[in-house]
Amino acid sequence: MLSYYAFKIPFTSPFRISNQTLNTRNGIYLVFDTGDFRAYGEIAPLPGFSKETIHQVVAVLLENQRNLEQAILKNEVEQFISILDSIHNFPSLSFGLDLLMLDLKSKERSKSLFSMFTDKDPKKPNVNGAIGVLDVESSVARAQSIIQEGINTLKIKVGVDQTKEMEVIGAIRKHFPKATIRIDANQAWTPKNALRNLELFEAYDIEYCEQPVSKYDIKGLKKVKNEASIAIAADESALGFNEAKLLIEEHACDVIILKPSLFGRIKNCLLIKELCISNGIELVITTAFDTIIGRTITAVLAAHLGSDKCAHGLATGRYLQETSFLPQEINQGKYVLPSSAGISFNLDV
């Protein structure tokens, strides 16, 4: 039996994202009950990033609930998802349905989620910790807290106040000389300003700079990538398969940041990985502030597809006020993958 459950999970504090403030993370849990176990999916468009809204997704789900349930029972769900994807092209919907079927098949076969992709031994992906726009003392304290958790990669927001940001990063580098530091400009600069500012950051041994220019300025991104000594990562410019493919073909960045829950079909993630390999581009996997269902699958994809050289944006559960009975996700700077079949957690719905 297929069921849908709406969720609205508060952020631990109001969260600023894409020029708006979010107080809750809203979405739909998909639950398929076989009688022996439950399989789960999660559909959660992210405001400011997803083109579809939660209301549009709900309308499609309600219209197709009976047909989708029959497709699952008849083992015809791949064709059904492909049809919905071609008609609506709602990435969060396609991803959520893929999650449901991956969890279902994993449990039916008594195989771990990771082993559904490969026979190789699973690796625990390294995670990064984020530092917002804070004063120097608070930033150093936040960095110390992250490093004490065993996380060695620090992601620091920049693009607001260059002088203050250099003071912050300089202080963090002084206190933690072995830490890996990456910066995220959130589209704040023109290509000219990006090159000037990145030259100033060179002294602090920066891993890469994320999205220095507008997500629409692929030419400018490529110019910065070709002329800056700091590696350049594309995030907002790479929110879909076609966008990421174009960036790779244009050699417009050194790193692709992939958010699977905004990307659509899981098979598209696999294709982008192959393109990254053939073009010498690193792939970093990050959540879109998904709940435990989406985070778990995203971590599995990070373990399977993500760069071994880079930490991944998976330590985001701390931003949501989810149940206290969740499994441990982060241990000594790594995401703990479920070792049993499927998602090792039962939702109380």
The portion of residues forming beta strands comes to: 15-25%
Widest sheet: strand order? Answer: 4-5-6-7-8-9-10
Main β-sheet: number of strands, strand sense, barrel status?
A: 7 strands, parallel
Poorly predicted segments? none
- The overall strand count is 12
The rough form would be described as globular
What is the structural class? alpha/beta
- Rg measurement, Å: 20 Å
Helical segment count: 11
Q: Overall mean pLDDT score?
A: 93
Portion in helices: 25-40%
Measure the end-to-end span. Answer: 14 Å
The ordered string of helix (H) and strand (E) elements is EEEHHHEHEHEHEHEHEHHEHEE
Could you explain the architecture of this structure?
By secondary structure, the chain is an alpha/beta fold. The chain is 40% helix and 20% strand. It is built from eleven helices and twelve strands. It has helices at residues 54-73, 77-88, 91-108, 136-148, 162-175, 191-201, 218-227, 241-249, 260-263, 266-279, 292-305, and strands at residues 2-17, 20-33, 38-43, 128-131, 153-157, 180-184, 206-210, 231-234, 255-258, 282-285, 330-331, 334-335. The protein has a seven-stranded parallel beta sheet. Strands 1-2-3 form a three-stranded antiparallel beta sheet. Helix 8 links the parallel strand 8 (231-234) and strand 9. Helix 2 (77-88) packs antiparallel against helix 3. It is globular and about 60 Å long. The model has no long low-confidence stretch (mean pLDDT 93).
